[in-house]
Amino acid sequence: MFMYVTLTVVILSLVGLWTPYQLKNTIFWTLSVAFVMLFKTEDYKQSPHLLKILISDNFKILVIIQFITSFYTFSLLIEFFILPFSLLLAMLVFISSLKYEFSCIQKTLHYIIALIGIYLLLDTLFKLISRWDDFIQINTAYDFFIPPLLTLLYIPFIVILTTVFAYERAFILMNRFIVDTSIRNFAKRYSLIRFNLRWKLLDRWLKLLLTINMTSKEEIKDSVNLVFKMRRNEQENRTIEKEYGWSPYEAKSYLLNEGLKTDYYHPDSSGIWWAQSNFKTIDESNMNTILYSVEGTESIVKNLKLELNVYLSHHYSHSLSKFISYAKKLHKKALNQEMPYNIEKSILKGEDKIYDIDCFRIEFKKIRRNHKDYASYDMVYVLSIR
Question: Is the pTM of the predicted complex or chain greater than 0.85?
Answer without folding.
Answer: no
